[in-house]
Amino acid sequence: MDSIRFRSASVEDAAEISALGRRTFHDTFVGKSFYTAELIDDYTSRAFAVDRVAEQISDSSNRFFLLVESTEAMGETNLGYAKLVQRAPEPQVVARVTGPSIYLDKFYIDRPFHHRGLGSVLLQHVRRECTQLGAEWMWLSVWEHNVQAQRFYERNEFLRVGEWDWPWEACGKSYVDCDWLMVGPVQPKRS
């Protein structure tokens, strides 16, 4: 893992984050429940549009991080990314934590790089960034049927504290999913 590094994203990375976001969202959700490629591709074409991602990167309340691997043979490859958002926590989060918190809005590893421990590596980096931002807690939402992600967060000391509706639109229709709200310490008890 010596060739693995992190870097804060800039507006120049918007096209790569857009492509990575669309790809990882597609890989994560297509084929689960009623999620078809058509629905997800329509949704992600807007949600991860390059100009929208660039706007989010430019917003000072957002911080994007890329997990990058550099090799002589392949050059630089983006393996995954995370997005932190400084925003007010949901009431279910406030009821469970004391101290400042930050929202982990996006956290994805590109499918070809799964099962290499990179999720844990990226989460460690995100936790360091949260410490620098003065947060003691992170909170996030995860789709109620995304058991793999739920287990990952639970292994990393996140607890379910509630749920919320996650509205989205695709192919001219509106949908509402149920996401678990989870909260975890920036400084975990286990190392």
Describe the structure.
With 191 residues, the chain is of the alpha+beta class. It has one domain (4-185): Aminopeptidase, CATH 3.40.630. The protein is 34% helix and 35% strand. It has helices at 14-29, 37-47, 50-58, 91-94, 118-132, 147-155, and strands at 4-8, 62-71, 75-85, 101-109, 137-143, 159-170, 173-185. A 7-stranded mixed β-sheet has the order 1-2-3-4-5-7-6, with helices on both faces. Strand 4, helix 5 and strand 5 form a beta-alpha-beta unit. The radius of gyration is 16 Å and the shape is globular. The two termini are 18 Å apart. The model has no long low-confidence stretch (mean pLDDT 94).
Outline:
With 191 residues, the protein is α+β, with helices and mostly antiparallel strands.
- Counting DSSP H or I runs of 4 or more residues, the number of helices is 6
Distance, first to last CA:
18 Å
Strand order of the largest sheet: 1-2-3-4-5-7-6
Structural class based on helices, strands and sheet pairing: alpha+beta
The helical percent reads 25-40%
Domains counted in the coordinates: how many? 1
Q: How many runs of DSSP E, i.e. beta strands?
A: 7
Largest β-sheet summary: 7 strands, mixed
Looking at this structure, what is the CATH superfamily? Gcn5-related N-acetyltransferase (GNAT)
Mean pLDDT: 94
Q: Helix and strand succession?
A: EHHHEEHEHEHEE
CATH topology: Aminopeptidase
